[in-house]
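Much of what follows relies on a compact textual record of a protein's fold. Here is one such record, which you should read through line by line:
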Amino acid sequence: MSNPRSLTQEEARERAALIEVQRYDLELDMTGLASGDELRATSTITFSATASGATTFVDCLGEVEEAVLNGKPLANGSPPHGRIELPDLEPDNVLVVRSVQCRTAEGQGVHRSVDPSDGEVYVWTSFEPDDARVVFACFDQPDLKAVFGITVLGPERWLVTSNSGHASISTVDGVSTWVYADTPPLSTYVPVVNAGPFVELRSTRNGYDLGLFVRRSLAPMLERDAEELFDLTARGLAFYGDQFALPFPQSRYDQVFAPEFGGAMENYGCVTWSDRFIHRDPPSYAERELRALVLLHEMAHMWFGDMVTMRWWDDLWLNEAFAEWACGWAGEACTEFTDAWAGILATDWPWAYAADCAPTTHPIRQEIADVATAAATFDAITYPKGAAVLKQLVAFVGEDAFVQALRNYFRNHAWANTTLDDLVGEVASASGRDLSGWVKGWLETSGTDRLTLERQDDGLTLVATPPAGRAPLPHRLRIGAYTDGDDGFTLVETLSVEVTGVETKIDGGSNADLMLVNDDDLTFASVQPDPASLELLLSRGGELPTAVGRTLALTTAWGLLYDGELTAQQFVDCGVGVLTCETTESVIEPSLGLLVDTADLWAAPSVRDRLLSQVADLCISLADRSDRRLAALRGLAQSATTPAQLEALSVHATEPNLRWRRLIRLAELDQFDESDLEQLLAEDPDPDAWMNAARARAAMPSAEAKAQAWQAVVDDRKIPPDFLYEFGCAFWRPAQEDLLTPYAEKFLQSLPQFGDSGTMWGLSLAGAFHPAVGGEKGFLDRLSDAAGDDGVSPVVRQKVRERNDRRRRREIARARE
């Protein structure tokens, strides 16, 4: 492949105006992947053209062995810039391209993984945003939807999954051929093939044939969780089908948990997940809730993304924001996770706010010049901020109107492509509200408004302070008025407020002791309470009567810490107070994570151990209750500092996962015994236990350990993207700055190579493995400059500069202690 070119929006418009694709007949020969790295593809594309004699191109990043257009041969070899020129088009055309791809170990388009425990080979494909061209020749843009007929050749003992579910299978000489029924019209980024000796579990629920797949070595863990996953899947399909007035139109719905996969992907009818969601030990409540929300997120894409697809990537945010909003909505409505919005507030809001405060902030909707730029928008503004903005839209127009708009939208645009205007038009029609100002404010500008509650002689005023250069956004929110009594805080009045300018007079609440701005978390804003309310939130926020209210106390304090208005000590004191009282499992584990992060990275070295010890004592006290035990012990494994705390961790850490966490903490503290690691490695049934061992060694304060860890992550890419965040936390330790400074410099020098294996690797290396510490004076300035070099991908550039801003804020906070 020579210098592959990213498709521009203008090129996509021109190509879409010229051609219409009727179908792909795609044959993937995976027999070469059983013992090697060769994937062969034959892509037969049937398409029409509006102008005879015109020229266009098809995308292909494989080595072309044969290409024939309408019976005429085209050039073979590596297509220049990843494009095969198609000259002299006819009104009706057939293109056949036979190609081979041998880059099957890098996670771009196709990935071949070998299970270290038994040597079994598993293969998955994942094509968003434009990696379908890595595997087969195609017109790789979302608005050229077509029917896919998929055929797969693989070893006889392999199971194969694809979008349309059931396949006819024939076997000759040890090679099985799987022929799938035609798909509905799909964009090129959502077809999928997964293959390998998977274990398959099936269940029929409400007329749907549901499938779960996992590699053999994780079969017992999947069997443990299968009933929960089947139940969640059935509930989600029923809920969405009813709410959208459009049942999922295919009887079969499969979910494949694949090794070394990052996150999850909404392939139509066949969702691919990282198999890290099949937890090796029984999962915590927060892990179960997250898994349910991811399941519902990907399922929402079946309607919003797969059936109805954005025309171009400038509306990518809408795909992801909708699915992120929908999973919280559905999670509370149809599952046991009835406090899902509180968990989302604790988990996602801090990072959405951080991204929106960074110099890399951008409007939710923005012009996307090419696909490489689109890949850089897979961020906390697209996902959690976008979801918060849709939640605000629902508050603005009402849920009934919003749901009716969705029903009309899906009915009118099923299997077609749309733009934002199509959805906004339906919402405006259903609600009777003019949304032009709402769209312009929320979607076309960047930055977060600060909402400050002021007590004045003539009553209460909510003051909206926007970022420089724009007016305040329109907010519809609630303010909870609470009185302070012997039993804690009591809600006496809920004030509905619509913000349309800088100052909004508040009727009521003047006699309340605590005014909770944005109660119920209906809008996305930074909040500055009045002084009396702030003092109560910081000291007694845990006494608020709702999970969202208590979490708002914590996230409000976190926002003030992030803006340099609180110290790490003040935030930790607030969090300890909240979590001492907290009863909602959804928020305990993510809130403990915020406390650990603050004590670990935001506190000055002189107080770091004291704050970590304070968090560790909280964890020990929480561990006495069975419903909090696992979350508390995980927090303890990150914060244990004193001999007594480490001893408590040793006593309670009995499951393999907790034992690994304990070893990682001991390694960081230079109290590591290699024999303990070898013993646990031998006892742990997890096929990926070697990665936990590598993580423990990476935490050690030794030059040899750091060199080996760097080699595994950056040079050899042995640590998959879905494990890199935990690995990065172990590697970049605050007490090891001198040891890590050379690696901070190596990180800077490596930026150009981080994006060479696709979006997921670029995001993970630049973000999850970003240097939390280390570097000479001026390092962050030089790192930001280096990220701007021409050879650095937009994905890497965006993530590095965003993380730089977070690190600068930590350094400012440490200087204030």
